[in-house]
Fold each of these.
Amino acid sequence: MKSEMECARCFCDSLFHQLGKLDVSPETKIAVTQKVMRMIAGADFNQPPPLIAAKVNEIVSDFIGKQDRFRKEKDLSTQCARELLESIRPELEKAPDRFEAYVLLAIAGNIIDFGVDCNFDLGTAREKIIHALSEPFDHAAMKLLRKKMDEAERILYLMDNCGEAVFDTLLTGLYPGKITLAVRGFPILNDVTRAEVESSGFRDVPVIDTGDATPGISFAASSEAFLEAFRTADLIIAKGQGNFETLCDDTDRPVFFLFRAKCPVVIRRLGGVKPGSYQICHVNVEA
């Protein structure tokens, strides 16, 4: 998916959010900002937004080091999600269709996103996630997703943000022995890396990483191990907008995308869906 004019604002918002978290001199912040602005001005907007966002992160890291700048938010998101999951388990036990409930919760967890929304409030997320089970969704797409997950022998599950990963344990737990988790190779925003898999609640599930720090999938930068897993999976489940933006036009593999439509660029790409709507869409999947 190509970047558009609105993406430049998001790149800048992310930059200023990261700079606000750093204890560095004003001169360093100005130097970083100037370099990022020059990069954006010369960027190839035929690329998906996450590939340009990765360059913003790389520039910041060049100045201040490859520290995990969202460590606090990651831990807080994971803690909040685990507490919330325990509090709603009684409601989950009453769900008439556990598969549907777990898919909706996996999408609802995408509410927890410090990377897209700098003013994100974990307290507000609690109520929204609890109401996830009553959100409208594409029933035909849900039915096809169930069919393909049941039929597949090897499912590659592309993770997104910390916090929402806790809810992913429910859906992946329905398919023991089939799932391999894929996480980011290095810290990028609040995305899941190997360091957060266990604390999110996963046990005895194979894990690979992309080998790079793109908030999506960059085939050019990915490790050979990840590319092999991607090529050989029977089915790929991709969580979050970043994975959608990088894969929707750039793969011949069967992929289901599970995410909330958060930004105007993605909303237009989906034909003008409702902002915040729950999306279950796919490419290269036969009915």
Amino acid sequence: MNIEGLDYNTKREKLILPEYGREVQNMVDYAVSLPSKEERQRCAEAIVAIMDRMFPQNRDSADHVQKLWDHLAIMSNFKLDIDYPYDVSQAKTITKKPDPMPYPMTKIPVRHYGKMMFEVFDKLKSMEPGEERDELIRLTANQMKRDLYQWGHGSSDDEKVASDLARYTDGKVQLDLDHFEFDKVETREMDKKRRKK
């Protein structure tokens, strides 16, 4: 379908900084095309003033005005020949994409406890008996119960927690369910978190 005068964004050139919109980009392109440096300078200052009015909430930051000039340089692909009031040479680093982060490939036996819980299990294996170890066991067991509740669609079994804790600590931690008291699981909060996933 080709309608005369109808211009789709998908057919237009991609915006360099979309937050400023197409009209500001058109102004920047126009400023680059101006023949005299004085005209380009006046036009650039007017564009920066417009950009400043678009985001008044950013005025509190110390380098706000410099960022506007950096953005102007980026939007012109560094072709705007004017006397910049700031050094815009560092603006090129803004457009550089970061290197991809390596994804951790650590294997864990069950995902619902997560990698950090398995680090805690390893720590519990080597800890000497005492108050600190007892407190860590209490915190770990309660977190395991919350994890089971969250991932098990509302079911968490004390025996399962005790069994898993013994299994993943190589039998070094044995919960006595007759004497161990779990914290009360806030079911409403857990249900809200589960629904968000």
Amino acid sequence: MSKVTIKHFGDVGYVKDGTQTFTFQLGDRTKPEFSKPVSSPEYESFLPVLRSGTYRILSYGQNNLEPNEVKEMISRNRLLPELIEKQIRMLYGQGPVLFIVKTLGREVSREFCSDPEIMEWLESWKESGLQDNYKTYLNKCIRSFYFDEGIFTRWRFNKSRRIGGSLPVAGLEHLSSTRCRFASKFEIDPYNYEDRDFKLVLFGDWQFAAPINFKVYPRFDFTTPFAYASCINYAKNPSQGEEVYAFNKFYRGIKEWIKGSNLTPRYINDYLENAFSARLHVIIPYSWVESKRQMLQDLCEKNAELEEAGKKLLTVKFGEEEVLEIGTDFNENILNKYINMELARFSRFLSGAGKNQGKIYSSYSYMTADGKQDRWTIEEVPQKYKEYIEGLTSYDKRADEVMLSAKGIDSSISNISKDGVISKSGADAYYNYMIYLSNLAIPEEVVTSDINYAIKLNFPEKYRQGFRVGFYRPVVHRQQEVSPADRPTNNQQP
């Protein structure tokens, strides 16, 4: 015999017995026991100031977990991870390089170059005890930018920097925004604060945060950069109206579309698993419930008398095996057990193909005050499979369009068009790709801000000469602009 699962949600619920599922309700009309408050967008930008021991912590999002929510929501989406990966690859290009900006008339260009001293320092990060080399650091920074538009960087300084020994800055380490929060040791007015009010960064797991688990770092101070052996800087793409943290404007704008897109596969799978068997809806009249309540109350009173007389107590039997012990004191839990056993009996009547011949399920009917018959009602649920699945897939396609539009990546370079077919127009791909590359100045500036300031501290003279770290993104030439001998199709290895 399969296990019967019965779930109640106030006066409604469902019964699942193997492959057989049906829903039920008590009474003709039901009201939800509670209503979930709808979050108001106008309060989304208000960030509470939290207390933890002696620290005042600026919440990152309303529940202090917005970076975690962004990470989970995007990583669970079928489209966004690869879409963001394309953005990362396009910004990273062929990797970080040194360059000097050259100005010729009205033209500004980059002259890519090499410098042995700077490159020796960049290549020494791992040997200096840092967790990543400079290329991996920049790769992580790009990812943080496209997820949060803000980057936390831990600066590591050499101990001998004050006595003219090695270079002042040993290297940089990327820290995830899911682990970093701004804080202060002083009282903070939650309605009137500035970025400069938060002199500390607390590093820890904020999903399971406890004061003893935090690592406390001072924020990088550009007025006294060598004040600490280690500190944290925060580079960001400014958000309108946001004073401290950067927020993913893309995520906030289409958050509900991402949620819906993530839920579509689950809806379809749940529907395929359960909906085919959930063909019936049972309405149990309150008059039946009230009659059973009165019956059980009477039995409990009778049992109290039997207990005083030292006699065996009465029980309620369901079939030959199931017995409901009711005791001497009535409570609503006894009534719920009785209803559940009745639903289980009804489920057994329904279950089993070809096994219901000769079976009879009976239930009393009742006369209401106005003379109408009140009885169990069994309604067949219409199964519109085609309409339901088509509705979900249509929503999914629209969600894809919205997400692509919000990311600003044309279908010709994202390889995703409105109907899910790869765009094959070479001209569209070329021009849209070139337009996209021309709009990467701000992302690159934010991503490389810390490493270029470290060059300023370590090599001030070279910094004045214009040496910077950027990314090399080669210009893609159209086929007609390349000689036949140099075209990719003629340079494939056999």
